[in-house]
C-alpha cells in the first residue's frame, strides 16, 4: 500500500472541477484509491463520494492506494493534487 498526505490549498477546497480531474486520473488505474478526511473516507474513483467529504481549504487529506499499479497510481494522483488543489 502507498499513501500520502496533502493539505488542500485551493481557496474553494475540493470542489467539482478538481474533484473530477482527480477521479478521472484514479480511474486509469486498477488499484483501489481511498481519500480520508476528518475520520471519514470515500472511494477516490467516485466523484459523489469525494464531494461528500466537504474538504475545505487548509484541511489535510490522506490518500491510500492499494493494488497492482499502486506505485504509478499514487504518483499520478499526488501530482494532480499538487497541480489542482
Describe the structure.
By secondary structure, the chain is an alpha+beta fold. It contains 3 helices and 4 strands, in the order βαββαβα. Strands 1-4-2-3 form a 4-stranded antiparallel sheet. Strand 2 (32-37) and strand 3 (40-43) form a beta hairpin. The longest helix is centred in the last third of the chain and has 15 residues, at 70-84. It is globular and about 35 Å long. The mean pLDDT is 95.
Write a concise synopsis of the structure shown:
The chain is built from three helices and four strands, in the order βαββαβα.
Number of helices: 3
Q: What is the spatial order of strands in the main beta sheet?
A: 1-4-2-3
Ranges where pLDDT stays below 50 over 5 or more residues in a row are none
| Class by SSE composition | alpha+beta
Report the major sheet.
Answer: 4 strands, antiparallel
Please report the total strand number as a whole number: 4
Distance between the termini: 23 Å
Averaged pLDDT, please? 95
Radius of gyration: 11 Å
Amount of helix: 25-40%
Shape: globular
Task: Name a few traits of the molecule.
4-stranded antiparallel sheet; about 80 residues; alpha+beta
SSE inventory with pairings:
Layout: E1 2-7, H1 16-26, E2 32-37, E3 40-43, H2 47-52, E4 60-66, H3 70-84
Antiparallel strand pairs: 1-4, 2-3, 2-4
Amino acid at each position: 500500500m502507498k499513501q500520502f498526505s496533502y493539505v488542500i490549498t485551493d481557496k474553494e477546497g475540493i470542489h467539482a472541477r478538481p474533484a473530477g480531474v482527480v477521479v478521472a486520473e484514479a480511474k486509469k488505474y486498477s488499484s483501489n484509491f481511498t481519500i480520508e478526511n476528518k475520520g471519514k473516507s470515500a472511494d477516490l474513483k467516485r466523484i459523489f463520494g469525494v464531494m461528500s467529504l466537504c474538504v475545505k481549504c487548509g484541511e489535510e487529506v490522506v490518500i491510500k492506494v492499494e493494488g497492482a499499479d499502486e506505485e504509478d497510481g499514487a504518483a499520478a494522483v499526488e501530482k494532480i493534487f499538487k497541480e489542482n488543489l
